[in-house]
């Protein structure tokens, strides 16, 4: 089991990961793409707060994540866990996510590493958003070496896959390197794999300026690329799966 806190400053600066996201679709038709992005790893009790004009480039708002938009992110995560019998007793919560930038907020995946007061990892939350303004949180046990967590798929994400199958999720806590992977499993095969890899960089104002000079709004860029790839798959003739109504989870708004 993974132990010990991730390498992230405890203060308000957070850290930035320069990342590469890769999607590999193996069935029903082979298709793959990758692109560069950048994300924040932050302590939800000490979120980076920037003055204008940097505030336009990075803000962390509860409305972009699970729970009530009027409550702090920490309170919403704690309430979600409490509803499932988990009490962190004030332990640290580290969040990997895109910040809201240039007025736009979107995260296809937000990961929360939730710790006990002694620094041991209690659980991991993988919050998945689709482009239909729906979200679902997968509550996972800590990673064990060579044994990714498993979860039944509950949210319609790609228009070319229905809500069936199971995920295997490898979400170890990041240090100098970030290495996450999610694979979709169907009977008889593994039709889809997504990986996110990255290298840690300093956060705070200087890191924000450096990253924004390369890509001012990574959340918007990601959302546009998702739609472009969907259009390419549609033009290849992939059938569109019907989207069922998603039943909201308790604690996820």
Give the SSE layout:
Layout: E1 15-25, E2 31-43, H1 73-82, E3 93-97, E4 109-115, E5 121-129, E6 135-140, E7 149-152, E8 166-170, E9 177-186, E10 189-202, H2 204-214, H3 218-235
Antiparallel strand pairs: 1-2, 1-10, 2-3, 3-4, 4-5, 5-6, 7-8, 8-9, 9-10
Characterization of the model:
The chain is an alpha+beta fold and 253 residues long. It contains three helices and ten strands; from the N terminus they run E-E-H-E-E-E-E-E-E-E-E-H-H. It has helices spanning 73-82, 204-214, 218-235; strands at 15-25, 31-43, 93-97, 109-115, 121-129, 135-140, 149-152, 166-170, 177-186, 189-202. Strands 6-5-4-3-2-1-10-9-8-7 form a ten-stranded antiparallel β-sheet. The longest helix is centred in the last third of the chain and has 18 residues, at 218-235. The model is unreliable at 1-5 (pLDDT under 50).
Count every beta strand, where a strand is a DSSP E run of 2 or more residues: 10
Count up the helices. 3
Using the CA coordinates, give the radius of gyration. Answer: 18 Å
- Please state roughly what percent of the residues sit in beta strands, choosing from under 5%, 5-15%, 15-25%, 25-35%, 35-45% or over 45%: 25-35%
Identify the quaternary structure here: single chain
Walk across the major sheet and give the strand order: 6-5-4-3-2-1-10-9-8-7
Q: Please write the string of helix (H) and strand (E) elements.
A: EEHEEEEEEEEHH
């Amino acid at each position: 089991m993974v132990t010990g806190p991730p390498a992230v400053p405890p203060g308000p600066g957070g850290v930035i990961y320069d990342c590469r996201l890769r999607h590999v679709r193996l069935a029903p038709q082979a298709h793959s793409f990758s692109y560069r992005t950048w994300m924040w790893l932050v302590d939800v009790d000490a979120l980076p707060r920037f003055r204008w004009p940097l505030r336009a480039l990075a803000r962390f708002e509860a409305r972009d994540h699970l729970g009530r938009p009027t409550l702090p992110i920490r309170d919403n995560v704690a309430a979600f866990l409490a509803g499932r019998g988990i009490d962190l007793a004030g332990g640290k919560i580290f969040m990997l996510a895109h910040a809201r930038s240039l007025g736009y907020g979107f995260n296809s995946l937000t990961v929360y590493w939730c710790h006990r007061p002694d620094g041991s990892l209690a659980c991991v939350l993988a919050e998945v958003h689709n482009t239909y303004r729906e979200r679902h949180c997968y509550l996972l046990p800590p990673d064990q070496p060579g044994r990714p967590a498993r979860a039944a798929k509950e949210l319609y994400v790609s228009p070319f896959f229905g809500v069936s199958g199971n995920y295997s999720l490898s979400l170890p806590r990041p240090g100098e390197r970030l290495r996450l992977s999610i694979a979709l499993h169907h009977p008889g095969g593994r039709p889809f794999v997504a990986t996110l890899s990255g290298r840690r960089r300093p956060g705070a104002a200087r890191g924000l300026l450096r990253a924004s000079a390369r890509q001012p709004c990574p959340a918007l860029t990601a959302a546009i690329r998702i739609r472009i790839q969907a259009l390419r798959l549609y033009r290849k003739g992939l059938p569109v799966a019907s989207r069922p109504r998603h039943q909201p989870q308790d604690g996820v708004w």
